[in-house]
Amino acid sequence: MGKKSEENKKRILNRYGLIVFFLLGIGTLIIFSAAKIAFTAEGKKWREVGEKETIIKNRVILPKRGNIYTYDGKLLATSEPLFSIYMDFWADGIREDTLMKYVGDLSIALSKKFPDRTASQYKNIILNGWKLRKKEERQIQENAARNIDKKVKLKSRYVRILRPDISYVDLKEIRTYPFLNQRSNRSGLIAEEKNARKRPFGNLANRTVGNVYKDLEKGGASGLEMKYDSLLRGVEGVKSRQKIQGRWTDIEEIAAKDGYDIITTIDADIQEVTERALRAKLEETSAESGTAIIMETKTGEIKGIANLDRMSNGSYAEGNPNAFSYMNEPGSTFKTVTVMVALDDGLITPTDSFHVGNGIYKYNGKLVLDHYWRQGRDRGYLTVKEGIEISSNVVMSKIVLKGYGNDPTKYVKGIDRIGLRKKLTWDVPLNGIEGTSSIRFPDDKINYWSKTTLPWMSFGYESKVPPIYLLMFYNGIANGGKMIKPFIAKTLLKGGKVVEEYKAEVVNEKMCKDTTLVQIQDMLAGVIENGTAKMVKSNYFSIAGKTGTAQIAGGGGYNNGYYVSFCGYFPADNPKYTCFVGIRKPQGSPSGGWQAGMVFKNIAEQTYVKRTQLRPEEAKIDSTLQKMPTIKSGNWENSQTVLSMLNFKSYISDSASDWVKVTYDSVAYQPKALAMSKNTVPSVLGMGAKDAIYLLEKSGLRVNLTGSGKVVSQSFAPESKLVKGTTISITLK
Question: Which residue, among 365, 341, 370, has the nearest Cα to 354 in the 3D structure?
Fold first, then answer.
C-alpha cells in the first residue's frame, strides 16, 4: 500500500514538473518576444502600427484671421468658425440596430433645421453611407480570403451629411438630435472646423476691403485682405488626435498664433454717403463705371472710397479698383498742373492774356477746340485765370507753346518737380502700370513724341494719370503745398494692443512756391464762382476745384465715349476734405464734368453736415438739405412714436394692419397698409432689419440676412406661396 502511494506521488511530481517546465518555456518565449518587440526593428514596426490606430499626428490648427475695422472700431471683416458635418460609418461604437432605430427621427429633425433637403433625402444619404460601409467590409473580407494584399479605400469614413457649413450654435443643436446625441465614436459625427470670413456691413467698401479665397487657408484674394495677408492670416499651430478610452481627443502641440487686426481710415458713414451718391449718378446716366474718393486734407486718411462697375444685369457693384486702375487721359483736371508749372517757372502771371477767338486754334495741322467753339462767339482774349475758370484748351496750349515750345523737357521736369511722376505703392494690390502716372519725356523711345504732344499734354491728353494721383495733387494744393500719399491701413493691433501706427508718406514737402500756391487756390475758387462748376457751389460752405472732360481713346481714335471728373476740396478757406469723382462713359452731355461735380457736391454737403458742428441757422438751410427724412416700411405704431417725438405730422392709419409703407405728401407722413396673408410670403421691401426679421419669422420662415440699411430684395417674391420652415434671403442696402 505504501509502495503504491509512493509511486503515485512520484508520478504526480513528474507530471507537475513537466507542466512547470512547459510554463517556464512559454514564459521564456513571452519574455524573448517582448524583448524582441521592445528593442528590435520589428518592435518599432508594431509600435508604429499601434500609433496609427490610436494617434493621428501633425494635424493643423488654423489660426484666427485678423479683423478689419473702420477708424472708430466698426467691423468691416471678421472671421467666424463654421463646421462641415460628416459621418464616419466605420466609427468603433456605431451599431446597425441603433442606427436603423433612429435614422427616421434623425432625418426628420435635420429636414426641419436644414430644409434644403427633405427627410427622405437625409434618410437615403445616411442609409447609403451605411450600405457603403457594409460593401467595403465585404470587400476587405474577400481580399483577406483570397490573400489579396490590396487596400480598400474607405469612402464611408467621410460622408457629408449637410450641404451648408453651420455655426457652432447649430452644431450644439444637432448634437441633441436622435442618434447624434451619443459620443462621437458611437454616432460617427465629424464636425470639421474652418474659419469663414464675415462682412457685418455687407458690401460696404467691398473692393477696398477685398475678399478671401473660398478656401480660407489660401488667404486674401483682393484688396486689403490680399495686401496685408501675411499679417492677417496668422501662423498655423500643430495638434495630434489621440484615441483615449474609445474617444478621439485633440492634443495641442504647438499653439496657433492669431493674425493681426487692422484698423483702417474708413469712416462707415462717409463711405455709405460716397457709395450712395456715386451709385445714384451712375444709375441716372447709365454710365459704364465710376469712382469716388474722399480723404482728410491734413492727414491723408481716406475716409470713403467707392469703385462701382455696371454688371451684366444693369445694376452697379464694387468691381475693379477704379480709383487706382483707371489709366485714362485725365482731361481738364490736368490744366491746373500746367498752370502751376508755368507760374512756378515765372513764365506767366494770372493776368497774362491769350487770344482764343471763337475757341478754334489750329496748330501743326491739328485743331485745338474749346468746349464753346460751336457757338461761334468771339471771346477775344482770356487771362490765365479766366482760362482755368472756363477750362480753355486754347489758353493752355498757348501757355506751353510760348513757355516750353523750344524746350518741352523743361515742362515735363516741372511736372516731375511737383511729384506727379513719382512711383508709389498703395494699400490695394495692383498689376502692371496700374496706380502709377504715365507722363513721358520728349526722349521717350517707346511712345514717340510728336510736334503736337506738348500742347495736347497741357490740357490733359497724351498722359495717363489715375484718380488717386489727381486726388493727391489737389490735396497738396489744399494742404498748403505739402503733397502726402493717401492711405487706408492706419493701425496694426495684436491682442487689442497697438503694434504699429501708419501715417501718410510725404511725397513732396513743397510742390510749388507760396505765391504760386495762393494764385492756384484763387483760380480754383473762381472755377466754382465764375466758371464751369457753378452748379457745384454750396450754400453752406465754400468749395474750390476743377472739372474735367476727356474723350476716351479706342480703336485708333477718340470715339469711345467720355470720361468726366471733378476734383476739389472744402471748405475752400480752411480745407478739411479733398474729394475726387470720376465717371466713365455716362450717357447724355458730358460738357464741363457737371455730372461728376454734382456727385462731389452731394458727398461734400452730407459729409460736412455729418462731421462738423453745423447749426441750421448758420447754414441757412433751404430745401436742398431740408428734405423730410425717409421712413422705412414696417410697424406703424413704432414709426408714429418716433414721428411724434420729432414733432413731425402724420395721418391716422385707416387700416387695421400694423404693417405699412410710409410716404410723405408735403404735409404729413401717410401710412399705406401692406398686403398680408397667412398663406403668402409677406413683402419686407423697404423695411429695416428688425421689422423684416420679425415679420418673416412670425410667418414661419427662416431668415438669411446680408448688408445693412433697408431691405432692397428678397429671394421669395412678395405674396408668393408660403412654405413654412424654408429659408428666405434678404439683402439690405
Answer: 370
Kind of pairing between the strands at 68-69 and 577-584 = unpaired
In angstroms, the CA 288 to CA 277 distance is 16
CA distance 345 to 414: 8
CB 542 within 8 Å of CB 527: no
- For 10: left if phi > 0, alpha if psi spans -120 to 50, otherwise beta; the answer is alpha
Query: How far are the Cα atoms of 91, 94, 131, 135 from residue 138, in angstroms, in the given order?
Result: 17, 17, 11, 5
CATH class of 268-613: alpha beta
Looking at mean pLDDT, say which of 24-38, 477-491, 657-671, 715-729 comes out highest.
477-491
Sequence-distant (≥ 6) Cβ neighbours of residue 569 within 8 angstroms: 297, 474, 475, 477, 478, 543, 544, 545, 575, 577, 578, 579
Contact 467, 323 (CB under 8 A): yes
| Domains in the chain: boundaries | 2-39, 58-264, 268-613, 628-673, 675-733
- β pairing state of 702-707 and 544-551: unpaired
- d(CA 690, CA 333) in angstroms, rounded, equals 45
Write down the architecture of domain 58-264 according to CATH: Alpha-Beta Complex (3.90)
Out of 280-284, 517-521, 637-641, the most confident range is 517-521
Cell of 513: 512756391
| DSSP code for 63 | P
- Chain segment 203-226, per-residue pLDDT in tens: 888 889 988 887 777 888 889 999
Q: What angle do CA 633, 637, 639 make, to 5 degrees?
A: 50
Report the alpha-carbon distance of residue 344 to residue 619 in Å, rounded: 37
Lookup: cell for 385: 485765370
- What's the mean pLDDT when you consider all of the chain? 86
* Identity of residue 503: K
**Residue 182 is placed in which grid cell?**
451619443
Determine the distance from the C-alpha atom of residue 668 to the mean position of all C-alpha atoms in its chain, rounded to a whole number: 39
Topology of 675-733 in CATH?
Answer: Trypsin Inhibitor V; Chain A (3.30.10)
Collect all residues with Cβ–Cβ distance below 8 Å to 457 and sequence separation of at least 6: 334, 338, 400, 411, 439, 463
Which three three-digit cell numbers place residue 186?
458611437
Task: Say if CB 178 and CB 102 are below 8 A apart.
Answer: yes
Residues paired with 546 in a beta bridge? 567
3-state helix, strand, coil in the chain (%, to 5): 40, 25, 40
Q: Distance of CA 397 to CAs 455, 560, 562, 645, Å?
A: 4, 24, 21, 61
Task: With beta carbons less than 8 A apart as the criterion, state whether 95 and 84 touch.
Answer: no
Residue 56 scores a pLDDT above 70: no
- How far is the first Cα of the chain from the last one, in angstroms, to the nearest whole number? 113
- Residues for the chain: how many in total? 733
Q: Is 602 exposed, middle or buried (0-12, 13-18, 19+ CB in 10 A)?
A: buried
Using alpha carbons only, give the angle 111, 117, 120 rounded to the nearest 5 degrees.
75
Task: Answer whether residue 42 shows pLDDT above 60.
Answer: no
- Burial category of 720 from C-beta neighbours within 10 Å (exposed 0-12, middle 13-18, buried 19 and up): exposed
DSSP 437: -
- Residue 476 CA to its chain's centroid (Å): 29
Q: 422 in helix, strand or coil?
A: coil
> With 50 as the cut, is the pLDDT of residue 656 above it?
yes
